[in-house]
Amino acid sequence: MLETSSPSTSAPARSLRLGVAGPVGTGKSSLIATVCRALASELRLGVVTNDIYTDEDARFLRSAGVLEPDRIRAVETGACPHTAIRDDITVNLLAVEDLERDFSPLDVVLIESGGDNLTATFSPALVDAQIFVLDVAGGGDVARKGGPGIARADLLVVNKTDLAPYVGVDVATMVADAEAAREGRQVLALSRADAASVETLAAWVRGLLVEHRAGTHTPQDPGPMAPHFHADEEGGVGTLHTHDDGQHSHDGQPAHSHP
Ligand SMILES: Nc1nc2c(ncn2[C@@H]2O[C@H](COP(=O)(O)OP(=O)(O)OP(=O)(O)O)[C@@H](O)[C@H]2O)c(=O)[nH]1
User: Where is the composition biased (Basic and acidic residues) (predicted)?
Assistant: First the structure.
């Protein structure tokens, strides 16, 4: 791939890990397919999908031919999606690190959460940044309802805007509601059928990668992590952690310091 092309020629310490979360069916897999189509010719990409009982999202992306099949790895969570993206990220972190090792160096690894409710967001120990996806078909009022993903994800996508006339949603109002809930953080009205919106999404990813490589992007936790226990070195139960400052990972190191 184009190591000499923008956004940077300097070697990153590791890939940019970008999470994509949001309610069931809002278009997370499709958004990842769109990003891959837009950027696969200029960046080295990998994908990890999360499904509860299947590897369906990975199979969808492989069959769409957006990346070579082995660059798309599936995690079966066997539990509510938030469990594997926030409460215990081990299986996802291993999948990401396997990808990064197998295809070293990668520029971006996209991690798709299983569809969950409005409270589910990624731990900053797993991803450097996250996109939260809503769609117009879920109702124009959803953006007003708030929650950590809507309010504080790095980017909020209002997806499937091509469907808005058919479901009676005014996209401009929905975006304005979302911007108010986000206190100025970016909102993108997206449709895979709208090339300009797709290019805006691709440009956002490129810009984030530049910041990641420069070390100027700080991973944020959109919501408090549930209190949890770590096993101590003897295998017993260790100390209760809350990590509610948004700056620390499961191992107590700065969230962006994983190798
Ligand atoms: N009209 C339209 N449909 C879209 C768009 N993006 C996705 N869809 C459709 O929305 C449906 C759900 O898309 P997915 O990408 O599977 O959604 P998801 O969030 O990954 O779904 P889960 O993994 O089940 O939570 C599919 O039928 C897609 O074809 C869009 O921009 N416009």
Answer: 241-253
Ligand 1 near 50 CB (within 6 A): no
115: Cβ below 6 Å to ligand 1?
yes
Which ranges in the chain belong to alpha helices (H)? 28-39, 56-64, 81-82, 90-102, 148-152, 164-167, 171-181, 195-214
Scanning 51-89, the segments in alpha helix (DSSP H) are 56-64, 81-82
Q: Write down all domains in the chain, each with its CATH number in brackets.
A: 16-241 (3.40.50.300)
Distances in Å between the alpha carbon of 164 and those of 20, 31, 157, 186, 189?
22, 17, 14, 20, 11
Rounded to two decimals, the pTM is 0.84
Tell me how far the alpha carbon of residue 250 lies from the centroid of ligand 1, in angstroms: 32
pLDDT given at position 214: 95
